[in-house]
TrEMBL record:
The lineage of its organism: Bacteria, Bacillati, Actinomycetota, Actinomycetes, Streptosporangiales. Its EC number is 2.7.1.6. Mg(2+) binds at residues 118, 150. ATP binds at residues 64, 112-118. It comes from Nonomuraea endophytica. This is Galactokinase.
Amino acid sequence: MRVTEAFRAAFGADPRTVWHAPGRVNLIGEHTDYNDGFVLPFAVPWGVTAAVSPRADGVVRLLSLQAEGGPVTRERLDGTRGWERYAAGVLAILGDRVRGADIAVDGDVPQGAGLSSSAALEVSVGSAVNEVYDLGLTPMEIALIGQKAENDFVGMPCGIMDQAASALSKEGHALFLDCRSLASRNVPLDLAADGLEILIIDTRAHHELADGEYAKRRAECESAARTLGVAALRDVTDLADALGRLSGDERKRTMHVVTENHRVEALIGLLRAGKAAEIGALLNASHLSLRDQFEVTVPELDVAAEAAVRGGARGARMTGGGFGGSVIALTATDRVEAVQRSVTAAYAEKGWREPRYLRATPAQGARKLA
Ligand code: GAF
């Protein structure tokens, strides 16, 4: 394994363990996780592999095969920058339970596509450190530590979806997660049996507002919940009444979150009934709600989703936080090329760079490789 060789070359010994954790796409349930709602992501076949050994002297050495230069030695975790923060953040959250570590990571999550390479990094490192320090953490506890590292150490106020998808997914399944109780279920997702697949369209757009706008949406949702006197928007049971008591952006955000939770449940109902071919309308409705009510799409996402459907996809929606990243399109396998042609033509008409197309079936969550 490449990461093991790099570890040996940099640190002069074999790693004690090697773990892989994947990135994710979200089938449906967007911007619901931090509202205590429902999500339905699945792991993608790309991720981060972390080779780790413990150290007794409190020193942390970090090496990424994707970063320029050799290993970085950090005696203080708060001195880290860039990608290092995600790994260092996990160690910082674990505190005294971890005395030090040599860590080498190798990632193949397509960069900038919004497929959660950061969660893959946190969960791969968390899983490996859990083993070498015998911490006895469950996959969900590792996911929560990854989320906390991102919230407190990196400063991104994300919910739990991405880390949970990376830690708990199962091959051939989507992960249904109740983000309040943290109860989860692996839901079979065999689209190929219906002649279908998920085409990922990486728009190659990344809008710099992303982080600030994400935090703003989250604050708006929390403020709407306070106005309504509920703990979280998940608790809204009478949408018409709630909308009557809100105005402006908070009204729109609430409309999205409440209807999106319903769409997650409806989609699971269709999957259970063996009607995967019929989930397309829910994907389209989710996209429109994210565009018009939650206002996290950008022209590249809208054009890709619309052109995918025009080209024959059964449904398409942005996936992840928004402001760039990827669209997923539910497509009959024999129409994938037509869908790609339609999106490529729409992009050419706008004078935009051609998007990148990726095909993914639901992959396994975090697992030990060696
Ligand atoms: C990002 C966040 F990291 C997730 O927690 C989630 O909120 C998502 O955006 C939107 O559904 O990926």
